[in-house]
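FAQ: What does the model actually see?

It sees only this:
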Amino acid sequence: MARFMATETVRHRHAALLAGLASQPAALAECAAMLCTADEPQPDRRGTRALVALAQMDQGALVRQPGSTVVLGCDRGDLDTTRAALIAALVPAGMPIAEDPESLALLALAERVATSEIPVLVEGPTGTGKEVLARFLHTASPRRTGPFVAVNCAAMPEAMLEALLFGHRKGAFTGASEAHEGFFRAADGGTLLLDEIGELPLALQAKLLRALQEGEVVPLGATAPVKVDVRVVACTNRHLPHEVEQGRFREDLYYRLNVFPLRLAALRDRVRDIAPLAFAMVLRHGLGNGQARWIAPEALALLRAHPWPGNVRELENVIRRALLLAGDRVTIMAQDIRFDAAVRPVHEEPAVERDSRLSDIAFRSEAEAILRVLDECGGHRGDTARRLGISERTLRYRLAQMRDSGVAAAAGGRA
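And it is asked to produce this:
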């Protein structure tokens, strides 16, 4: 049961508001902002803690003040919205923000898992906050004072993956003008996050398995292994058992990582998280010193009713857009909420103009071919890549280009 640091005045005046915080993880309460009332002397912050000052106002408002202080105007007529804003203001940047019972249960489980040394597999759709949960695991663990190193396996050049993960000696390959310790050794004594673990090539999966089993790595160009003390957290948006069945992911590595899986639900399935997350985005993007902001109940109702195909990332886009549309108004209203439009499929693209550049025509033709084969393969990226005669990595790059160009929202497919 979490106990946030609060003055006695706060506990006396705002008991009902604080009661809703009891189910928050204890690890968050330990690093959260302190609570006081706006009309009492500021308490000792005990280091670098932020401060949230509660004030009685005619309507709800969040106001940022100098010195890591946020004033929260309490609307006693809308306790639920005030509590959502309070959660957003209390939780430190980079930590999970949750109010939905399912999310709180997951965080309670993660808090227990964090005290162990076992590998953790975090699963969930893109944009649900898997890296945030991984950071929470690190913060709640005995390794919290050690490094947290995050690596996106899909973003690294395939030819350089081994050297980047395990390190290399000077002269180990062409261009290796100096030695590199690698991410495993950089995370020694702490936590290594391997994001998009399903994108790791099979050859490297075997070496990762050895590193997990033996607690040692062999840098490129070296002949002796180097001991490492690393806790690995792996994240994926793929269904790894299916990848194992298809021969794209090693079964032994899957079971090594899957000692304790944690699955993040899509945002539409944890509706009570939406309001505190929205207020967190307001704090992040819409509050300069002395500026006040709030979200009207009607706007929050629209946010809760949306299906959120883009999850938390889409919510961040919507709030940033709403802040811009609200202008100088304190309160974000329903008319300020503009959701991301569904992207047009290729066949709805306007006809090619006679003076279109050859590169544009080639891009559209390639996009049409990719989407046609993707549809014929039931959205399966691996089968699509094989049909097209390209690697999955190349296909992912092409799909990302198509999404960025607004060609097709359905260009994601499945693994």
